[in-house]
Write a structure and sequence with these properties.
With 136 residues, this protein is of the alpha+beta class. It has 5 helices and 5 strands, in the order αββββααβαα. The longest helix has 19 residues, at 78-96. The radius of gyration is 19 Å and the shape is elongated.
Length: 136
Amino acid sequence: MSTDTKNRYIEAIGRRKTATARVRLTPSAKASFMVNEKELKDYFQTEDLQAIALSAMANGSAEGEKFTVTVQVVGGGIHAQAEAVRHGISRVLVERDENVKTALKKLGFLKRDSRAVERKKFGLKKARKAPTWSKR
C-alpha cells in the first residue's frame, strides 16, 4: 500500500432533523477534532454536547489509534448538530472497519433519526391543535 492511500481521508455525511454534518477522518500522528474550523470544545461548549459528538469514537474506534477529524456542520440547532456529527463519525468508522458496525448499530448511532417538527396547518393554532370550539 502506498503512502498516498494510507493517509487518505474517509468521508461520510451524518444528519439529524435539519442539521447536516460532513465528517472527514484522516489517520495522523496526533489526535485533533475540528468543527467548522474551531476546536470541539469551542464549538460544542457543554460537556453533554461534547460527549454526544464523541460517543461514536469512544464506542467504535480502535484503541491507541489517532485521527484528525474535521467536520463541516450546517443547519438545525446545536443539539441536532452534535447528533449529526455522531451519525457522521459512526458512518466513517464503519466504512473504515466493518467490525465496529454491530456495536454502533446496537447503540443506535447508525440510524438516521428523522424525527422533525411537524409543520403548522392552515386553520389550526399549531400542527394539530385546533381552536377552541364554541357553539355560538
